[in-house]
Amino acid sequence: MQRIQKCPSRCTNIEQQELLIAACRTALAAGRLIKEHYEQPHDVTMKGVIDLVTDTDVASEVISSASLSSDTPDIMIMAEETITSHALETDRYWVVDPLDGTTNFAYGFPYFAVSISLIDHGRPIVGTVYAPLLDELFCAAKGAGSWLNDRAITVTKTRRLIEALIGTGFPYEIEHSLPGVIRQLETMLHNVRDIRRAGAAALDLAYVSCGRLDGFYEINLKPWDTAAGWLLVEEAGGLVSVFSGRPYSTCVPEIVASNGALHRQLIKLLK
Q: 163-206: per-residue pLDDT in tens?
């Protein structure tokens, strides 16, 4: 419980503090379920040719929605497996990815997380990403910084791309975007220290916020993939934008996040 008090104690008001605690408490509850299911057989169904969903995704979403509805009954929820457009019609709504990195989870690859964020007038004001196997809880609140468990975190100070470790991901509809993805990947590989493609965008963004990655970029992501990580990176001192350098929005299907010092260089390569 102590680790979900450090960051909330820095919140600018009591409501913000309560919202962040609700998000963290929900993420921990969903994470416990995911961890319990990790080594059990999974019931897998397909949402697309290679895009899958497991029974654990659905169970985690049920727990998450119930917890958030109990704590904040007046705030609507947009969750990945039960997408509703009604939430977008309100000024404030929760965005939930009950299991970011489902393919990793289904294969026993230990890189996945729960991601929860509250969007207020188009921007996240609280957010959390919880990696249950590592028991790492990332959280952030507007104006209160970013935290990993009970310690404040910041982005790296890397200033040269050739010294940078960059994360990325590939879209499920890869056949429609393969040439562009390959061009960007080839350009990056020539200019950075190395690239990581681990398969969970929310956790990749959290890794930028704590300095495990210097930057991250990807296309065709959804709001539940990026909302919490967006806030984590900015509150840790980094920058988030679209590939042109314009301000990021969860309505735009491309994102580049960095420690700030590398941002212009990354944008130049991505163009």
A: 999 999 998 777 778 888 899 999 999 999 999 999 999 999 99
Going from N- to C-terminal start, the domains of the chain cover 3-153, 161-270
Rounded CA separation 36/204 (Å) = 23
In the chain the beta strands, taken as DSSP E runs, fall at 44-46, 52-54, 76-79, 92-100, 113-120, 123-131, 136-141, 145-148, 151-153, 165-168, 194-196, 215-219, 239-241, 254-258
Q: Could you tell me the pTM of the whole model?
A: 0.94
**Which of 1.10.150.120, 3.40.50.970, 3.30.540.10, 3.90.1300.10 would CATH assign to domain 3-153?**
3.30.540.10
Classified as helix, coil or strand, 259 is: coil
257 in helix, strand or coil?
Answer: strand
C-alpha span between 250 and 248 (Å, rounded): 7
